[in-house]
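queue> holo job accepted (GMT)
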Amino acid sequence: MKIGITCYPTYGGSGTVATELGIALGKRGHDVSFIAYSMPYRFNFEPNVHYHEVQMLNYPLFEYPPYSLALAVKTAEIVESENLDLVHSHYAVPHATSAFLAKQILGGRKLKAVTTLHGTDITLVGSDPSYARITRFSIEQSDGITSVSEFLKKETRKIFEVENNIEVIPNFVDTDRFTRNVNCDDRAKFASEDEKLLIHISNFRPVKRISDVLKIFAGVRKEMPAKLLMVGDGPLRASAFCGASSLGIESDVLFMGKQAEIEKMLCLADLLLLPSQTESFGLVALEAMSCEIPVVASDVGGIPEVVRHGECGYLAPVGDVSKMTEYALKVLGDNELRKKMGKNARDYAIENFSMEEIVARYEAFYEKVLAD
Ligand code: GMT
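queue> job finished
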């Protein structure tokens, strides 16, 4: 197949999934064209995978340059030049709308539009009154819709009342790359032998409840020697820095900024913290699980579909810092339990979210959409 993929190219789960999917499809012999405003951060060389940059004219009149329009034009152009069969939009806002516009521009040409719903495109951004009607319209106009969890499928039905079929195709992980392969020299750069190493990875937005991450770690730190790696960047990074100082844990919290190869950091850690307000899936939890890292997370959204409570880690209600601290101490204080949960987590990831199986499900979904 000849497939176009539009996504956010920056750090974030939807861009990660889109990029890994495109590269995997390329390896399976498909021609893949990424269309985005910059090169996706996990993009790497594959002979039949291409990247096309959306060019935008800026003009003093534009306080907000109309990216959706430039993306629609670029998509139409690439559909023609690469003879694409379908365009797969990751994150509905505004990619599904641009795909719809591209189809209109191309008139009678046969082109199928597939949209994958990732989370905040439904729960936070897409449902905001400023975008709700266009999001609903663009989802309805898609020839195929997938969502990354059962939770998100239900939310989409509830919020937008769309009648179209929504197929749940969960996110996936490359279990060969995300594997426990601890380099003791690297670990020693962050924590001494007697210290536990906790990790949090996110885009540092309010939905991630960064202050809960710090409070949980402060609770752990009271009971045992430990370090916390804070990986990623975003609007709350500066306040997280201050938060660590006011909790008196600043010397034990290491702010790492954005990291390209998070598997190398993940596999050094003993526990991942993900106390989010909501998560449609929680890709980073799956990546940690693949590296045999147990997870302490919020019992919310699609997280329970990924992290099995009591088997791969523990879940607690959103904001219940003391319960999450108790769970973190339980895992970190018992090496046997931590290792057992780590093994369960990897087994669960392999059984349910392996790259080969999920990419094959996308392929089958494309075939079905193209045949309709
Ligand atoms: O969290 C965000 O706002 C970013 C968004 C993204 O585009 O990366 O994350 C969403 O999509 C990921 C990939 O499918 C999911 O793993 C995240 O759970 C989801 N985030 C939320 O639902 C908050």
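queue> The CA atoms of residues 351 and 357 lie 9 Å apart.
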